[in-house]
Every structure is written in C-alpha cells, then in structure tokens.
Amino acid sequence: MTVLKGKGVVKGISFGKLSIKNSISSIDCNLKCKINDTQLEILRYENGKKAAIEHLKELYNKVCSEVDKESAMIFEVHQMMIEDETYCSSIFDLIKNEKVNSEYAVSCVSKKMIDKLSKVDDEYIRERIADIKDVSSLLIDCICGNVSRDCEINRKCILGANDFTPSQTAEMNSETTKGLLMMNGTVNSHACILAKAMNIPCVVGLGDQLKEEYDGKDIILDGFSGTIYIEPDVTTIKRLKKKLKMCQKHYELLNNLKGKENITLDGKKIKLYANIGSISDLNIVKGNDAGGIGLFRSEFLYLRRKNYPSEEEQFKVYKKVLEEMKDKEVVIRTLDIGADKKVDYFDLPREDNPAMGYRAIRICLDRPQIFKQQLRAIFRASTFGKVSIMFPMIISLQELKNAKKIVKEVKHELKESGIPFDKNVKVGVMIETPAAVFISDELAKEADFFSIGTNDLTQYSLAIDRQNNKVSGMYDPYHKAILRMIKIVADNAHKHGIWVGICGELAADENLTELFLSLGIDELSMSAPFILGIRKKIRETNVDEVRDEIIKKFL
Ligand code: PEP
Ligand code: MG
After folding, report:
1. Ligand 1 atom closest to Cα of 456?
2. Is 479 a catalytic residue?
C-alpha cells in the first residue's frame, strides 16, 4: 500500500479505481501547418467557434439544472471569452497574414495572453490563466471536430490529474465520478467550487506524489484527512469502511434534528442562521433548516459581470429571497466590494494593500449613488418579508452615522415618491475591525444589532492576510485576542440592549459553540450544511455547568 497526503477540499470517502487523465492541454500539442486557402481556414475556425459556443451552452444548462445558476456562470464567462473581439481578431489576423492553420493560431494567441497574465502580480488575474487554457483548448478541439472531449469522464472511477478545468469538472457526473485528485488545484479554483457543489470528494495539492503508474489501481480517497491509499491493505479497507459507515450514520442523525429547536439542556435558545451569496443557495438553506439568513453577501450580485446591476435587478433578487424565506429574518450586508472581490467596472485603483484600502463601506460612502441604488432596491423589497441591513468594515461612529444618514435620505425619497417600504428595517453593524470592537459601546447606541465578522477581525487583529498561503499557519482565530474581543462586543451589545451574532467562519466551529453560548451570543450564521451539526452541539450543552470552565480555558 502507498499513502499520499494532500489537502481535503470536499469531505467524503470513496472507494474505486483511479483513472489518471493526461494533463497535456490541446493548446500545447498543435503542429504549425501552412495553408493556401485562408478563406477556407477562416470558415473552419468559425465552425469550430460555433461548435465550442454550443458546447458551452450545453455545459451551462447541465450545471444550472444539476448544481445551480451561480456555478454555471463560469460557462457564460467562457463564452464571452471565445467571442471577445480582441481574441477573435488576433486569431483571424494570424490566419490571414501568416497563412497558418486555425488551431495553431488559437494556440499562439492564447499562449501570448497566458504569458502576459503570468507576469501580473495579482492572484485573481493569474487564476484566469486556467480559464484561457480551458476555453482555448475547447476551441481547438472543436476546430478539429473533437467535441465529445472526454470519454473517461463518464466512467465510474476516481479521476486524477494535474488540475481539472471548469468544463472538465462540469462534464463530470456525480453518479459516476466518485472522487477527484489533483496534483495542483487550489481550494478556491472553479474546479473545487464545482466539486463542492456536486459533493464529489476531492483532494488537491498532491504534487508529484500522484504518479502515472497508479493509473488503473484500486484506491481509497479520504476527503476528510486529505489522504489517498493506493492498493490499500485489508486493515485499511476495513478501517475506512467503518469510517464511511460512521459518516453515513452521522448524516442520518443530523437529519433527525430538522425541525427541532436550538435549545441547550438548561433551556437557553440561540438563533442559527445561514450565510448566502445568491438565490441559488436557498435550497440548501431550507434543506438544512436555517432559522433565517444572517449574512447575505450582496456583493456577489456585482461580481462576474460587465456592468452594475440595475436597481430593478437587485430589487428582484432581494424580493425573491425575502419571499422564499417567508417570515424569517434576512440580513443583507451592503456592498463589500474591494480587497479580494474585484470588479472591473468599478474602476478601482491598484493598491499595494487592498485589504486595508478602498473597500466596502468606504466605497459606498465615497460613491453614494451606487450605495443609494442598492439601498433603494433593499427598501423596495422590504415589504415582501423581514429584512435587516448591516454595514461592513465600520471603523468609526462617524462612518456609521454617515451611512445611516444616506439610509434616511433613501427612505425620505421613497416616501416622497409614494413607494411603499417597511419603516422598521433594522440597521446593524458588522464588527470586523479591532477599531469597531473597542468602540462597540458607542456603536451599540446607534445600531440595532451587531454581527461579528471573525474572518476579517482575525486578519486585521493578527496582521495576517487571510489570502496569503505563506502565513496561513499563523491565521489563528482561537487566539485569545480574538476570543476576548468577541466577549467585549457581546458585553457591550447586551449592555445597550441589542443582539449580537457571529457570521464569520468561526460560527460553525463546534469547538467554540460552548464558549459562544457562555458569552450569550444570540445568533450564529454559517454555511448552511453546518447548521444541523451545531444544533446537535447546542442541544447537548448545559451552559450553566460548563460556563466557568470554558471561559477559563479560552479567555
Ligand atoms: C468576515 O469577515 O468574517 C465576514 C463574514 O465577511 P467576509 O468573509 O465576506 O469578508
Ligand atoms: Mg469581512
């Protein structure tokens, strides 16, 4: 037996045969041919382009129906790339001027683009290289008439490769693809995002441990620990089968908790809400019995598009979310653009330190037209359910007052125009900077609630960039500084009679549930699949019994 160690991205255990995919992309294996008839060659290229667009549309529809619209959007972006004017005319020019075959022209143009992008000092832009490779090799395959691209993808097995492109992942079928192994692959790549959405167990970062010679061998993939067992021995098979059974039992047990209260053994109740980024998350939210939405990351409506979403477009989304959630509370976090969430049409300046730069509420206060448009959409939707708003990245009382002033103006304008809205929409503050923590006593007088964003709070308190792999080992949300800050915020909130929640990743950490209950946190908002596990933990806790010991342990 050989054991490989990587990073588990999608939890789960799979037994199956490994099939290693050849990682040579079509853009790397094209011979240059001289052609005589450029018109005919351009026709070949145009036909290939048409077939590629058709293929991308099919993938879009497949992912839309099997996963969700949000995950499918990458194929709309790929289609835009294939139709991009500069991309097309560069290919066209090369065929015409150099008299070369079209697949070679596509390969040259894409390699040039990749070369340019690989020099850019920006991770997001560099990640687009994978998209260019994916789109260009699809185009080449289509020009060559090789549209049905990968028959291996439909075989029942665990697939291994250097990396998987988004379209390869989308072509997979969660019935037949039992698992994914990648030599490279980053947690935030589209392939991993799709694998998560399709619930295909996945391990990345295996590097050259993953060898071609393992092709066809029996393996076990443990997505919990990121371990791969090649030709496992009998003891390992037995152990992993037992682990698989336990996982299945655990999920069944959790399912039984649907419809039950989030109440501790000594009768304390807490709200368990879900974090969402789009309408398409609502099915999972309902399936996991969330009591509401504690964080709607509204900036996702602004990403992956060419221009601002209109007020009407935003209104429709908010209205739909509120209607779907019926009387349950929905907290919309106003635009948190900037830092790692970049949008071309915002024309944001290049910054050395974007996480500490022009982002979130800073942009909204600086560009009130954009802010007002979003607020109008939210207030117009407010009559369709129970909505609250909260502002991200607040660092001062003045900022909160300025944001509230704009809210007041929007309400006044709507009233003047006779447009109905809920006059009692609550206005909260995200506590995600150390500054906000230490003035939370003052902020509490101006806010209806607090929601602690532990992701950014950890980054800003420990001076650890949450995006930087080099220092990720030091990103420690259990740091006493963070946990003590949570206590300060909770105490200040309660002193002033407002509720306090946590919407950062820490909310879903079962090791801290007892602490959060002991501190009197009123709400925890997390990715929906974690809700039932936390409910189980809450129902097994006696807060009065554990409080002293747990506070001593963590604070
Ligand atoms: C946070 O910072 O903890 C948070 C919830 O916001 P985001 O992760 O979107 O920055
Ligand atoms: Mg944040």
Report:
1. 2
2. no
User: Which atom of ligand 1 has the smallest separation from the CA of 459?
Assistant: 2
Distances (CA, A) of 316 to 279, 293, 294, 308, 311: 10, 17, 19, 15, 9
> How far away, in angstroms, is 457 Cα from ligand 1 center?
8
Please indicate whether residue 428, judged by its CB atom, sits closer than 6 Å to ligand 1: no
Given its phi and psi angles, is residue 410 left (phi above 0), alpha (psi -120 to 50 degrees) or beta?
A: alpha
CA dist., res. 457 & res. 231, Å (int): 45
The pLDDT tens digits of the residues spanning 94-153 come to 999 999 999 889 999 998 988 888 887 776 676 678 788 888 888 888 888 766 544 444
Enumerate residues 6+ apart whose C-beta is below 8 A from 432.
Answer: 392, 393, 452, 453, 454, 455, 456, 457, 460, 504
- Known catalytic membership, residue 503: yes
8 A C-beta contact, residue 17 and residue 177: no
Q: Which residue minimizes the CA distance to atom 8 of ligand 1?
A: 455
Report the C-alpha gap between 403 and 394 in whole angstroms: 10
Residue 361's nearest CA partner among 408, 313, 395, 322 is 395
pTM: 0.69
Backbone angles phi, psi at 464, to 5 degrees: -120, 110
End-to-end Cα spacing for the chain: 45
The residues with which 7 forms a beta bridge, in sequence order, are 204
Grade residue 473 by pLDDT with cuts at 50, 70 and 90: confident
Cβ neighbors of 462 (< 8 A, separation 6 or more) are 474, 475, 476, 479, 481, 482
- Residue 93, helix vs strand vs coil: helix
* Tokens (6 digits) for 233: 């021995």
Distance (angstroms) between ligand 1 centre and the Cα of 462 equals: 15
Structure tokens at 449: 């609630």
| Residue 218 φ then ψ, to 5° | -75, 135
Return d(Cα 502, Cα 523) in angstroms, integer.
6
Of 374, 384, 381, nearest in space to 328 by CA: 384
Bridge partners, residue 222, by sequence? 13, 227
The ligand placed nearest to the CA atom of residue 393 is: 2
Q: How many CB atoms sit inside 10 A of residue 480's CB?
A: 10
Residue 199 CA to ligand 1 centre (angstroms): 24
For residue 54, what are its two tokens? 């058709």
- CA of residue 222 to ligand 1 center, whole Å: 29
Strands 13-20 and 218-222 turn out to be antiparallel
Average pLDDT score over residue span 151-174? 72
Helix, coil or strand: residue 238:
helix
DSSP-assigned letter for residue 349: P
Alpha-carbon distance of 320 to 334, in angstroms, equals: 17
Atom of ligand 1 nearest to the CA of 506: 3
- In this prediction, residue 186 has a pLDDT band, given cuts at 50, 70 and 90, of low
Residue 328 sits at φ, ψ, to 5 deg, of -75, 150
Tens of pLDDT along 419-468? 999 999 999 999 999 999 999 999 999 999 999 999 999 999 999 988 77
> Out of 157, 190, 192, 364, which one is annotated catalytic?
190
